[in-house]
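Q: For a teaching session next week I want to show students how multiple molecules come together into a single three-dimensional assembly. I've collected the sequence lines for a complex. Could you give me the predicted structure tokens for the whole thing so I can convert them for display?
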Amino acid sequence: MTRISRRRIEHGLRLPAPAPGAELGRRIKDQIPDDLFGAPEETSRGDRISGPPPATGAGQPRTWGRPAVWAVAASVVVALGAGWLATRMFETADPLSPAPIVAAPAESESAPAAAVDQLAPLEVGETESVAQASSSRERSERRAAVIAKQSTPPRESSPAREPAVAAPAARPDSAVAGAATGGAAPAPDETDGGRGAAFDDRERLDLAPASLPAERPMARQTQSLDPGQVAAKRALAKPARDSARLERVMDDLLETAADRAGSESTSAISIDGTSGRTAGRLVLLVSATVRDGLASGNAERLAGAIELELDPTLVKAYRLLASHARDLGADTAPTGVAARAAATRRVTALYELEIAGDLDRNTGLGTVRLRDNGKAKDVEESTGRGIVAADFAHWATTTVSLRLTALGAEIALLPGDAPPEVVASLRAELERLRAGADVDEVSARRADELLDVLSR
Amino acid sequence: MATAPAPASELTEASRRGRRGRDETELLADLRRGDRLAAEILVELTYPLIYRSLFRMCGDGDAASDLTQDTFARAWRALDQFDGRSRFSTWLYRIAYTTFLNHVRRPQRFVQLDDAAVPAEPVAPLAVDPLLALDAVRLRRAVLALPEELRFAVTAHFWGEVPVREIARQEGLSSVAIRKRLRRAVTRLRGELEEGGS
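A: Of course. Below is the structure for the complete assembly, covering every listed component.
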């Protein structure tokens, strides 16, 4: 075996890369958007404020020299920043994750206004026609033509009852851009720019109905598990259809799920899943018990974290639909640092996954890990549990509670101007569930509450 | 009232030279005041680094060039989210890294038959020693196969030329923790490469 020194590896990692051409710099400069240069007295969201701009770090004028002014400004900036960040995080459906460095503002702005149920896959011939195009520009044009053709006569809603764990028929991701935007397919140059990659973002975005926030990039996601943070972020986030009632129902539903997971599972991590209401989507419920972080000597950071790692060849995208965290035994434990060091929390999170193809029952989709670095500072231990296709029951046969939780999360993420067909589809599903023979009294009441929230 | 951006053609080279000496914070402040030249200078200062880091990640000049443009496009859209917690270039590197991950993880929609016939072997970065260049391909693969937290630390530090302290700020960890991650990553890489080379 060849022995490779650490120094050689580090040297290899530092190998020089070629310098970019000046042409690239010119192109990038040409692409600087003019709307970047807004009025300095306006915040990024257009909210007018008085006084200097609230930009943190980067944009403060040098006249802010006095410490008192700095202190006040800093607190305002922190409050504004936290609120805004929390709102953004909620919008990306991920209130628990660390601050996203890259959200997808343009994607969320261009969210389509059609229901996912209306999205129809390309016909086989259409797919081939697009695939046979010789250049990316031609592909884009053909795709736009197919999209326009598809979107002119609106298709009937696809049935919600699809076989469990089944992907949409033929390349839905390439089919839906025009359909979702009502046939107003963007010009090829605007979307493609001569390259396939630029187009892909919008295609993937358009897969989601208007109610869905933009997808997050597929990556390992580490969640912070502080219930206080969750509450604060929820309070700061302002979803259009949010109400105290909806929040309470969702809390109840997730708490029920957590109770069930706690009582039925003997492992630290419990997962449950169902196929989504629409083909190609799965709903995954993860519940885990984590320890508080004070044992690590760090009062601010929690020790436990859930990590979700998914196989990108099987799962195209995922998002966090809802989450819930609560202390376990906090009332009975002794007070003070010792109590917090010993405290545990149960965290429950609901994800939606978009799968890339049909899955065999035994197909592994990824891993849920519970990372624990509480035993010693910087020492991490993790326990994991694989996610397989068999974990996902068919939507029609899954438990009422899981279906209700998924529907509630979907309603909570609906924007105020959600298309009526999306709302109607959710209402129909809730009514179907409500009329089912397996609905107990509590679930029926929650379904009624969700129906009531939906009708407002 | 919005300040109208000055046309790039009207910007004199002298003005450009004078402004290059300013630091990122001042340029960002200028940019927020509606100064297009500040944005252009920020591009000039940062795009070579972003291109190089993306080249090291994907091993392909054309792809690196495309991804660099994507990175800046995303950065302009997300500029409001830059909170000054780290340097602008570090923040930009994070965007480049995410853009790269999105690129490699995005399923290929259309595979041209011509492309399919050619194995997608990344090009080795420039190296003096051909043996080292050979290693570089394996090395890149091994780096990209690392767990996320190690991969980010390694790529940011070695390929993005981001100082450890900046990575620590970005990740909300201590510098010591980042150094430990780097050490763990290198140990792991050594194991991978030794295994592969045996």
